[in-house]
Amino acid sequence: MKNRGIRLAAAQEAAQRDPGYASQYYGRRSRLAGLRSGLGDWTSFGGEVPGLVDMAPGRDQGGGAGGGGGGGKGTTSLFILSEDNCIRKHTRFIIEWPPFEYAVLLTIIANCVVLALEEHLPKSDKTILAQKLEATEIYFLGIFCVEASLKILALGFVLHRGSYLRNIWNIMDFFVVVTG
After folding, report:
1. Which domains does the chain show, CATH number per domain?
2. What does the alpha-carbon distance between residue 10 and residue 138 come to, in Å, rounded to a whole number?
């Protein structure tokens, strides 16, 4: 309350020195009051809301979840790696590199083929082929863990636009890796 009185007194003093200031101050104040009450018109501000503080770098500043795209400028990955970090740049290059994407796709297809060849026999008996195919599971899991780790390092985990868990396919991928 005391601060409001001081600001009001400062505004009145400024209005006495410059008559144009009063209309600017009171107009701005009423628009912000309307905005805070939920009745304000966002378009009257021309896309910006004067007097409001910008969010800290690394925080989501609105918008929807992007597809596989990157986050906004100033975002961090895991609260550690900034956009211009060497590790993050290289991991982003790797996950966007077409041969990497094809390799992951081929790994998924190979894993599906291995699962399709699996035979369920009574009393947990296994054929020689089933035993060999079962040994490949650890390799598939390792490849999928590496892929998820690289994507989390490059995109961030969940807090900002374009992060790993803001993509529905990555959510499914993460679920498969965690349950594997």
Report:
1. 2-45 (no CATH), 86-179 (1.20.120)
2. 70
